[in-house]
Design a protein that fits this description.
With about 130 residues, this protein is mainly α. Helix content is about 50%, strand content about 10%. A hairpin with a 2-residue loop joins β3 (about 55-60) and β4 (about 60). α1 crosses α3 (about 65-80) and α4 packs across α7.
C-alpha cells in the first residue's frame, strides 16, 4: 500500500513526466503508475512515497519550506474532505477531484512552481478528473 501526503494527491494525479531530477521523476512515475493501475493508497502526514526520492527532503521536513508543504497538505485534505490514515482508491480520488472548483484547486496549488512552469493547472486537473 502506498502512502501519500495530502498535496501529493494532486501532484501524482497531474504528473506528466517532469521532476526535480531523474531519480525523483522515475519514482514519481512508479507511484503514479501503481496508483492508476489500482494499487491502494493510504493518506499520511509527513514524508510519503513521493518524498522518498526527493532531493529536497530533510530529516525534519522539506528544504523548500516545511510550513508551505504542511499548509498545502492541510488544504488538500480539507478541500477533498479527507484525513490522514484514510484509505483511498484512484477512482475515489478522481471523483473527489472532479467535484472540486478552481478556487479550491488554487487554495491547494496556488503559487506552486510546477503550476508556474505550466506543467499542471486547474484546466488539466478538471480535464483528467472528468474523463
Amino acid at each position: 500500500m502506498r502512502e501519500l501526503r495530502g498535496h501529493h494527491l494532486f501532484c501524482t494525479f497531474l504528473f506528466s513526466g517532469s521532476g526535480y531530477d531523474e531519480a525523483f521523476t522515475e519514482n514519481m512515475q512508479k507511484v503514479a503508475d501503481g496508483l492508476r493501475s489500482g494499487e491502494p493508497l493510504r493518506l499520511c502526514a509527513g514524508h510519503d512515497h513521493v518524498c522518498s526520492a526527493c532531493p529536497n527532503r530533510l530529516p525534519e521536513g522539506c528544504a523548500l519550506g516545511t510550513e508551505d508543504v504542511a499548509r498545502r497538505d492541510a488544504a488538500a485534505l480539507r478541500e477533498l474532505g479527507l484525513a490522514p490514515d484514510m484509505p483511498l482508491t484512484w477512482e475515489e480520488l478522481k471523483v473527489r477531484l472532479a467535484q472540486m472548483d478552481e478556487a479550491g484547486f488554487q487554495r491547494v496549488c496556488g503559487g506552486c512552481r510546477w503550476q508556474a512552469e505550466g506543467l499542471c493547472g486547474w484546466e488539466l486537473l478538471h480535464r483528467r478528473a472528468t474523463l
